[in-house]
Design brief:
6 helices, about 190 residues, alpha+beta, about 25% helix
């Protein structure tokens, strides 16, 4: 059985391709998306209060082996460690007044299994129709004829994107980096 929580050594490090340069301080658009609690949320309304959204390409399952070549894509591997990092620091984000959401282009049903299996205490947003991805022009990549979102994190507040963390590496330290930034800014 593979260990989805441990990152292999020598993963390629993603480079900043400028794919998020346009996002700093832009207004968050009004887009309705579904979460793992089967709730419809409006992204613009969500962005009115301090919120962290972290994005990841795709999570795996214990029975779905990592596809050949996945570990060779800079920044692709590490969705479960990234999500579990936010899970493990969730109470600290809440103490600072921040909501936390994950986001991917996987279906809500797929994400629900992941949330249940990994005891994720926050909702994950499904952007399976690429509404948010296309409106915000978020960076994506192709793998096995699938369009996937690149790993990043954003801090939203006052209806705007206040900070973008991109590229993210290593993914298992993303929550810690975001939390440290929030603590220094507040």
């Amino acid at each position: 059985m593979k260990d989805l929580f441990k990152l292999p050594e020598n993963l390629p490090v993603p480079l900043d391709d400028g794919g998020c340069n346009h996002l700093q301080n832009i207004a968050v658009p009004s887009i309705n998306l579904i979460t793992t609690n089967n709730c419809e949320i409006n992204l613009h309304e969500l962005a009115q209060t301090p919120t962290v959204i972290f994005f990841y390409p795709r999570t795996g399952t214990l029975t779905d082996p990592t596809a050949d070549g996945w570990n060779l894509i800079p920044g692709a591997r590490g969705c479960t460690p990234q999500s579990c990092g936010f899970r493990d620091l969730y109470s600290e984000f809440k103490e600072l007044g921040f909501n936390v959401y994950g986001a991917s282009t996987q279906t809500t049903e797929y994400q629900q299994e992941f949330v249940e299996r990994n005891h994720i205490p926050f909702e994950i947003i499904s952007d399976e129709k690429f509404l948010m991805t296309d409106k915000l022009i978020l960076p994506t990549f192709e793998f096995n004829n699938q369009r996937l979102i690149k790993r990043m994190a954003m801090i939203l507040n006052h209806g705007k994107i206040m900070k973008v963390f991109y590229p993210v590496f290593p993914p298992d330290k993303n929550a810690e980096v975001v939390l440290n930034w929030i603590q220094k800014e507040n």
